[in-house]
Structure formats: structure tokens, C-alpha cells
Amino acid sequence: MPRALLVPFVLALALLAACSGRPDGGAKYRIAVIPKGTGHEFWQAVAKGARAADAELADLEIVWKGPAGEGDTGAQIALVESFLADGVHGLCLAPLDARALVAPVRQALRRNVPVVVFDSGLAEPGLGIVSYVATDNRRGGELAGEHLAALLHGKGRVLVLRYQVGSESTEAREAGCLAALARAPGIEVVSSDRHGGPDEAKAVEVSENLLATFGDRLDGVFCSNESSTAGMLAALQRDPRRLAGRIKLVGFDSSAVLAQGLRNRTVHGIVLQDPVGMGHQAVHAMHKRLTGQPVPARIPTGEVLATPENLDQPRVRALLFPGS
Amino acid sequence: MNGPGEPGVLLRVQDVTKSFGATQALRGVSFDVRRGEVHALLGENGAGKSTLLKVLAGVHAPDAGGMELLGQPYRPRGPAAARRVGVAMIHQELCLAPHLTVAENLHLGAERARWGVVRAGEQRRAARAVLARLGHGELDPDTRVETLPLALRQVVEIARAVAHAARVLILDEPTSSLGEADAARLFALLAELRSGGLGIVYVSHFLDEVRRIGDRCTVLRDGAVAGGGRLDDCDDDALVRLMVGRPLAAMFPRVPHGAGAPLVEIAGLGGRRAPLDLDLTLYAGEILGLAGLVGAGRSETLRCLFGLDPVRAGSARLAGGRPLARSPRASIAAGVGLLSEDRAGEGLALDLPVAANLTLSGLGRCARGGFLLPRAERAAAAGHGASLRIAMRSPDQPVRELSGGNQQKVAFARLLHQDARVLLLDEPTRGIDVATKAELYAKIGALAAAGRTVVLVSSYLPELLHVCDRIAVFRRGRMVEVRAAADWNEEDLVRVAAGGQR
Amino acid sequence: MSQERRGIARAGSWLRGAFAPFVGLFVVVALFTVYGWVAKPESQFLSAFRMALIAKQTAIVGVTALGATLVVLSGGIDLSVGSMLALCTVVLAQALAGGVDPLAALGLTLAVGAAAGAVNGLLVTRLRLVPFLATLGTMLLFRGLAEEIAAQQKIPAPAPAWLGGLLDPPAPGSAWLVCDGVWIVAALALVLAFVVRRTVFGRHVVAVGSNAATARLCGVPVARVQMVVYALGGLLVALGGVFEFANLSRQGNPMSGVGLELEAIAAVVLGGASLGGGRGSIVGAMAGALLMTTLRSGCVYAEVPDPLQKVLIGGILLAAIAVDRRRAGASP
User: Fold this and answer.
1) Does residue C18 fall inside a structural domain?
2) Chain A residues inside the 8 Å CB shell of C145
């Protein structure tokens, strides 16, 4: 190598080593934990649980890495493939797309790399994954729908703001909610075909447009994830008709802003998952498999409805503020 | 093969008319091209030559009138269709793919291929054969076109036409960017093609070169045929009168002027490639001509002096001691202006209005405190437009819509607007018509009479001999000789430029 | 050009660039209005409320498009604006959350934006990188910086009403009609339109974009002009970042602004600009940005399904550009 190139090369190498988050080995098992994204607080909580499990298990270490942003399925597929090439012992994966991730998972299983799927399922049963560690999203959606119907005394006009096409978990929540609402004959669903998308600013815009169109005669809203709930809340709060608080808003997943909304009654219900428990249990399930212990095929992590009334109960509080 | 009419007629144009909106570009033009002849098309800019060529090459369809190729009706639907039946145009701006090789360019659009795979060897052989036939066997088919000088690119383009069995070759101002030697080679090549039976339509502003190569001519004026015939039968005066309606003597109007005090001192100036170690003094009120072959370093000298190209050695100063050759900005501030030889690429922002182009280098004259004064700007444009007789609709018209001669006047007017004391003019009359040339010569003379210094680079020797007071000849980056214009003649200029012995 | 058009050529020159997108805007508004009369008599499309909403939704892409118009006019392109916006919004939130005085935090944010733009400018002028590639690189770079500063989380932060409420609607019955952010963008648009058309700097920008070689020949300080244009673009994007912070209920989100660069460029092109440089209009770009938000809002109003909405917007975008190109290329 010419000398002129040597110095920058060494510098780059040093920089790389300094930036590398890779633990310095020693553990027997190295497993990759791949969330849907890294920006949302939900995934921060999952990471917290996974890291707790990592700390508990001496013979195992995790590598936490998600696609930049949320919603880039291609980037997630590439991540799975590069971890396989890297020779990890196991994969914990929250698939961004129920179908698109089937092929990379199958590839992993073929190479005898066990896969735990968490948060969101895959569209193909019988793949041979270790376990599915997740909230019962349909049940969570039903919980939200029943709560919304009860808030409105079984009568009124509501809309459902969806998250994104192809996201299995949120689609199950939306289906559950719509099913519960359908059981209340006095409820009319005025719109359920809009998607907030992963960009919160877009969720705000879609919410504003929905409120401009339906806001005058609207009684309730359900949003199926954190960013669309936050976007809808922002739109409600800014609406000059003072819609916030008057229109019942039921959402999914927590964040500081949503918890605050619950406190000042601009949000009327949040279905909470247990992201810390999910991360924790996913890694433990993988560890059991690697050490030859039996693992159940489905590990439900539970769902809880937080309301302005119950938000100070310790169990709800713990799920509402997973970071604390 | 020949049509039923006169023997040997390849292409016949009959009463062709073409209008663009309200402008009638061609009114009932008729002429023909015979096999084995060079037919020269003469006329001022705007006389309709370009339109006629575009009709011939299939770019425009005529509104009325007809064309025949070898006795068959000829109605090409586009340039590609025209090429397919054997009518090929060589443009002023050559259209070759610069990143492809000579061989690839020769076969562009008609690749020799099997199953979609180009047969490079076969193409190379074919290219070599064609180039050899044209007397350019030394040209390697694998050379990338961008590395070739302009003259050789032109050869490649002609070779492409020949390789595709062209019967009629249309050349639009082919020598406008060529030096004397390259032009001579081109004429030899054309003579070769002519004797091979091709019909050649040749457009040029230069009467002398038309005489060297042409057999017959047709003169256009205002979209109609003004006259024509065998070139041997008409003298220059007659041709010029047909083109512009005035005699030849009016072409180089002389404005009395005389050299005054030294204005610019150039000492040991050296650029990247040229000039080399240039010592020269420019005087107020003089017109200095720079002669030489293409690539001899004349343009580079102007660009170096103006600060566009980097200076490697020496210096240039104004009489007051103010340094030159730093940056265009500094040069303009010191009262130096440059007219670029590349009008479309560098000289003008074609999409901007006339006014914006004209005032760009002297914007301070139309602004106060950083804010533009649109009225002052329009007034400046209108004033210079009137004094140079620029044919434009309004100062807001994009320069692109003007004819070549008027575009050049805009570029020239810019130097007047910035009130340059030293005007560096690089091929100022290239590609513009006789009448406009005469106007520019008069203006240059007037500038010298007003005490300005003009440095004129030109490849058109009569222009240098008639317009300049002194002429310096460049060869390979060096100024080899400078004399009063009266002490030069064309033969001397050519010999010194080419490095011949006395 | 015919005799009668000659007379209006001068008066029309101001509007010429901006005219086409306004026609498009008018057509789209008319379309939804007529649809409303026919199909939705109970709620009209053209309400003051909806107009104010559309204006507010245009603020972020609009202020970004202001800078993008300058950059495109100068013959460049800036793909990094979306990431730059995320960087700025995160810097603002982090500063406010850290207890920095709001005015100082605003100043810091604008400075960061201008500096980020200047980085692009340096890459283009000093390293002579093609703007497309230079800003493709900084697009990743700024996004990474934003995520790093925010530790990949949303940052909620306290902010006073004049800062955090920039996009909040005015009090009912107020004479201001639309939120402060919209007035700021409108004022900036007028100032910049004047700068482009009536100042030496603006003329230099257009000249550099139209033909950089000519500009150099005429003594225009080409590199300096490009630097200023990119830095100014960054400054405007920073303001967009401030709006984004206000838009997300006083939070800085490091994932903000994904795809914003394309929306801004679409607005600029809809506004009659040529990506080749030298042609473009500030007012036109604003109309282009309004056109797109109006379309999205109208599609919800008319209950056009999501997928069809995308097809519709894409189609209208192409149609508008095609129409404009025909107009521009009409002269022989």
C-alpha cells in the first residue's frame, strides 16, 4: 500500500474500532436481536428487556440492531442476511412485514440458526421457529374497541387511523378493534382506510385532514400504534374547534406525550403492551433453545388497558413508563 | 440510377416554402445538387440557409413545394430517415458521443451485431477501411472521440456519413472552428469524395474557401434565391452584392485611428500550456491581431491575460502599475473585457434575457446598494441594442431566440457596457454573416479611435490583414513574430504560422 | 411571437414562471369544490378552516422549498434537506430540554442549519463534487448525526408559545387567520422573490445556474455565490426544523423529514424550475408546494382511497410538469 494511503487507512481503522459497539466476546452464544426500528420508545423498552436478559445470562450476549427508521423492510432483510453471514447463533426478530421476512427466516433455519419471532408474526405457519413472543394484538384491539364503545355508551361516529400496509401486528389490532365496534350497533365507523405511516409528521397531516373532513360530527378515534396516536393527539390539540378531550381518543403503546395526554384527559385509553417483558422473554426463549430446554411455541406477554382512572396503579404505571 | 430529368441530379428542391409563426423563413426556394459536385449555399445569417439545410436533412418538413432524391419523391420524416436514404448532415456543433471510440461512433445506431452482441472486431475493420479511404488511415478506431481535436472529430463525422452510404453530404460551416492547415486537409477530403460521385452541399461565409472547393453556388437572401450559377462565372463583388446588396469594399470599413501611449505591459507571461514567455506591449488606440494555427496558443494567451486560465510565470500590468491576469473579476474591475470564442458554451447564458447577458459583467452600472435598477438595465440593453443594431423583440427576449450574428452582438455589447479599455476578442466574427461582420469591424475601428486597445484573435486572414494595425503570429505557444499589418500578406502569415522558412 | 402578445410580454415576465403552478392549483381547488357541491353538500371544500389547515401543512415543505429553489436556480440540488431538518429539529429539542434559553436555542438551531448548508457548499465548491453526490453523502451524514444527538429517541422539550406554538392556529376570531409559521413563510417568500429578481446577488445566482462559465467570464464570484446559496438553503431548512418541532407537539424526532427532499424538489419543479439551473420561481415553488398539500387534503375530503390518492398525485405531478415543459419549449 502506498504510504500516502497508509495513514488515512490506519486512522479509519482506529475510528472504526472506537465506534464499534461490538462486545469483546467471551460468551458462548452470540445472538442478534432485530427490532422493527430504533426510533420509537417502544423499541427502546424492548431493548431494555433484552439487555436485562443479556445481563442475567452469562453464556450469552446479544447484538441489538434495527433498520434505520421504521418501515424499511428491505433494510431489515439485509440486516438478517448480514447477521447470518456473520455467524450468529440465534436470531430474535420482529418482522416488519409478515411475508417479506419469511424467506430470510427460512434461510436462517436452513442454516440451523434458530429464530425467535417477537412483537409481530410471520404469515407462514409451520416454518419451525422456536417461539412467537408477542402481545395478543387482536385481543388488544378488541380491548380498545370495547373501551371506546363503552366511553360512547354504544352510540356515535368513530374513525380508525391505521398504521401501515403490511404490518401484521397493527393490522390485527385494527381488525380486533373494528370487530369489537361492530358488536355495538349504535357505532358508525366513518373512515378506516387511512394510514398514518411511520413518519409522525405525516400522521399529523393525515389526522388533520381527517378531522377537517369528519371532525364536526365525530365522537371517537382509535389509532393502532404510538406514532399515529401521537399524530392524532397533536392534530386534536391544535384544532381550533377544541376537539381535544371532546373526541374520545384510544390508542396503542405509550410515550411520554401520550401518558401526559392520559393524565389531562385528552387521551382516554391506551392499550399497553409489555415491551420490556417481550424483549426479556424473547432472549430467554432463545437461551432455553440453545441450551436444550423446552420452549412453548407461543409466549403471550400480556396487554393492559390504561385509562385516566387507573394510571396510577403500580402495574399500569410500570408499563406506561417502561423507561423508569 | 439517375432521375428522368437532367442527368446526374441527385437531389432536387422545388419551390420550397417554410414559415415559423409569422416569419417566412423560405419563400419558394429551388435548387439542385448533382453527383460529383460541391454546391455552395451562400447568404447572410437569417437568409434562410439553416432552415433550408434542416429541410434537406429532414429536421423540418416544408410547408409547400417538393423534393426529389434520384427522381423519387423525398419526404424524410426525420434526420434518421434522411440518413437512411443517403442524405447526411454534418452539423456546426458536431454530434458525436464523446465517450465512445471512433469505431463505435461510426456505427452508432447501425451497430454490426449478432444476437444483440456487438461485433467489435468487424466494426473496427470497417472503420479502418473507411478512414483509410478518406486519407485518414492514421486514425486509430479505438481512440475515444473526446481525445481527438476538433478537426479529426469532423473527419469521424464525415466518415460516419460515408460509411452509411451517403449520397448527399450537407456541411454547415465546416471550417468555422478549423485552422488553415486543417481546413486544407478538409478540402482535400471533400475533393476526394466529390470525385467519388457524392453530391456535397456546402455552407460557408468565406468566399475564398467557397471558391477553392465549390463548383456552383446558390445565394439566398431573405428566404429566397437571389442568384447563383457556376462560381467561375461570377466574381466576389457580384456574390457579395447578391448576398448583402452592397460592394466588397464596404466589408472592411476603416475608421482612422492611431496608436498612442503604452497601455498594457506583458513581461515573460506564461500559462499552463500557452503562452510561453510572452513579452508584449499593447498601446492605446491600436488593434493587434493574433494569427496562428488552431492550438498555437492565441486563445490561451487572451484567457491568461484575462485571468481565466492560471498564470505560471511572468506578469502583465496596466500602464498605471495595476496588475492583470489575476481573475476575471479583477480584470473587469481594471477595465479589461474578454469575448469568448465559445459563444454557446461560455460566452452567453443562452436562456437568460438579452438584458441580463449584456449587463452581467457590468452589473454595478445598473444597481445601487446591491439592488438592481431594472429601468437602467433595460435602457442599457436598448441603447447598445440600437447602436449595434441588434435585432431583438425586447431586452427581455432570451438570447437563444436570436440569430447567431445577433447573439454575437450581445456578447460584444457586454464589453461596451462594462466600458472596457482593453478588449480581448477571440474569433469575434466566427459564424456570423458578412453584413454583421462589417458592422463589427466598424465598431472595433471606432473603439480604437476612441483610444481603446483591441486584441483580435482570428483564423480568417483577410480580417486580420484589413482590420488590424499590427499582427503577431503564434506558433506552439510562442509569439514568433510581430509586424505592422501592412508588412504582412496571407502567404507570409501562413508560412510563419506553420513554421516554414523564408 | 405574434404582435398582440408583444404588449403583454413585459407585464407577464414577472408571472411567467409562476403562472403555470397557479393554474394547476386553481384547477385542483375547483375540482374538489365542484365535487363538494355535487357529492357533499353538507360540508364545503372551500372553508376558511380548511384553507388555514392547508396553509399550515405547507409551511414545512414550503420553507424547505424556498431554499431548494435558490439551490436549483444556481444549478445545484440538495438531497440532504430532509436529514438536515431532522438534525435541526433534534438540536432545538435537545437544547430546550437542556434548559437553554429559547431565543438562544433558536439561534443555535439556525446556525446549525446554516453550517450544515455550508458543508454542502464547501463540498461542491472546494472539493468540486457533483451536488447530487455531495448531498447524497451528507444526507446520510446528517441523519446519523441527528440520531446520535437524539440517542435514537424522540425528545420532548418545553417551549414557550412563540416558539412551540408556531403552527398552532390563531385564537378563534383573530384577524391573523392562519398560524404564525405560515406568515413567516409568506414573508420570506416575498423577500426572496425580490432578492432573486431585483438584487445583484439574485442575478448572480441565476447567471451561475444558467451558465457557470459565462458567469465566471463576467466576473461573477461563482464559488462564493454557491456557498451562500447552500448556506441560505440550510438556514431555511433549520426554520423548517423549528416548525417540525412545533408540529410534533414540541418534540424533536430524529426520523423527521424522510423524503422531504423529494417533496421540496417536486414543489420547485412544479413551480416552473428547470433542474438544469437558471430557471425557477420562488412564488411558483410556493404554489407547487400548496398544490401538493391541497391534493392530499382534498383526497381525504373526497374520500379517495389511499392507493388511488398516490396514483392521482403522481399523475398530476407529471401532467403539470409536462404542460410546463411544452410551454417553455414552445418557441422555435
Assistant:
1) no
2) none
| Percent of the residues in chain B that have a pLDDT greater than 90, as a whole number | 42
**How many C-beta atoms lie closer than 10 Å to residue B449's C-beta?**
13
Taking the Cβ of residue B59 and every Cβ of chain C, the question of whether any pair is shorter than 8 Å is answered with no
Q: Does C16 touch chain B (CB under 8 A)?
A: no
A&C contacts, CB < 8 Å? 89
Distance of CA C65 to the CA centre of its chain: 2
Domains and CATH numbers, chain A: 26-134+275-301 (3.40.50.2300), 137-272 (3.40.50.2300)
Q: Which residues of C touch A225 (CB under 8 A)?
A: none
* pLDDT tens per residue across span A100-150: 889 899 989 998 999 999 988 888 888 899 999 999 999 999 999 999 999
Domain that holds residue B74: 9-251
- The grid cell for A175 is 381488525
Same structural domain, B303 and B191: no
Q: Which of residues 207-246 of C touch B (CB under 8 A)?
A: 207, 210-211, 213-221
Residues B244 and B345 in one domain: no
ipTM: 0.84
Tens-digit pLDDT profile for residues A11-52: 777 776 666 655 555 678 999 999 988 767 788 889 999 999
Instruction: Single out the residue of B360, B319, B356, B311 nearest to residue B338, CA to CA.
Output: B360
Q: How far apart are CA A99 and CA B30, in angstroms?
A: 72
- Judge if B236 and B335 occupy the same domain: no
pLDDT digits (tens, 9 = 90+) for C191-220: 999 999 999 999 999 999 999 999 999 999
Query: Hey, are the CB atoms on C152 and A39 less than 8 Å from each other?
Result: yes
Task: Please compute, for residue B314, the number of CA atoms within 13 A of its CA located in the half-sphere on the CB side.
Answer: 22
Q: Is the pTM for the entire model greater than 0.95?
A: no
Based on the structure, what is the number of domains in chain B?
A: 2
Chain A interface, mutation test: which of C64, C142, C249, C308, most A Cβ atoms within 10 Å? C249
Residue A200 and residue C57: Cβ atoms within 8 Å? no
CA A50 from chain center: how many Å? Answer: 14
Of B22, B360, B401, the CB nearest to C207: B360
Same domain, B354 and B447: yes
Question: Which of B251, B276, B297 is the endpoint of a domain?
Answer: B251
